[in-house]
Amino acid sequence: MKFKLRTLFIILISLATIAPVCVLSGGDTSIHGGEVDLTDGALVEVIGENAEIRVRRVTTNTLRWDATLNNAEYVDFYTQSLTGAPVNHHVISATTSAGGATTANSVIEIELPVGTQLVVRTTNRPIVIDSVTVTSASLTTSDGKISVVNSSGNFDLSTTNSEVTVQGLIGHVNVATTNAHVWFDGVVSEGTNSISTTNGDIAVRLRNGSDVTVSGSTHNGDVTVNAGKDGVIKDGDTATLEHLFGSGSASLNITNGPGAIHINPNTIAVFDGDG
Predict the structure, then answer these.
(1) What is the pLDDT of residue 273?
(2) Which residues of the chain fall short of a pLDDT of 70?
(3) Looking at residue 6, what is its pLDDT?
(4) What is the distance between the alpha carbons of residues 138 and 195, in angstroms, rounded to a whole number?
């Protein structure tokens, strides 16, 4: 009898010892990582649902990714090279299966080589771009913020009900959102560019090197240029503007309403720390 009790006691101690290990290993969170060598100008396509996408620059030709999948039983994850090595089209995908729409989510972190083409499509989560150089980038989400910092290339940014922040961009830009602010700071010197939102403010700071004609319109919102009213025409609740920066070889069209438009304001809250 004493032998049986002693055996049972040892078993209980053993179970208590290994239980924390089982918890730490986590049953429903999985982590995936990998890398692949790319050709110059390769296309990198990232497809997500309920997935936050974070992209930063790497100086080699090697694309690297790390994906953390929460409630992984509901996340279908795969990567695929559509051409031989070195690769000129690579896909990273984390989509949500039925039943996981409200609980499953992912974070995909990517190190992106210079000069690639980037396409990101996700939902309900943000897209964060930091210090990349691309030939083109198409970034689309819904109900998620988009942030692009210290980057260059041609950027098309689209979301809904969420803020778009662009700081230190050199290149072509198109921004579209709804019910949220757009903050832009950078150099615009070529092509046809646009920024649009509704029910939010648009603030644009054009850095030295910009060469652009800025036009825009809004209703039920204040409009300023260089903190004043030069180039602003008010007609009832509608205001239009036209502003020349440099010789005006590029164009930037801004549409809003209701909401404010500020070109080269003294401060931009998100950049300067003002409320």
Answers:
(1) 54
(2) 1-27, 99-102, 272-275
(3) 44
(4) 15
Number of domains in the chain: 1
In a domain, 215, yes or no: yes
Q: Domain containing 267: what range?
A: 163-275
Structure tokens at 61: 């030709």
Contacts with 142 (C-beta within 8 Å, 6 or more apart), sequence order: 123, 124, 159, 160, 161
- 145, 159 Cβ separation under 8 angstroms: yes
Type and span of the H or E element at 95: strand 87-96
- How far apart, in whole angstroms, are the C-alpha atoms of residue 212 and residue 2? 90
Give the C-alpha distances (Å, rounded to integers) separating 227 from 89, 204, 215, 231, 244. Answer: 46, 12, 16, 12, 15
Q: Maximum CA pair distance of the chain? A: 97
Domain annotation covers residue 201: yes
DSSP H or E stretch at residue 17: helix 2-25
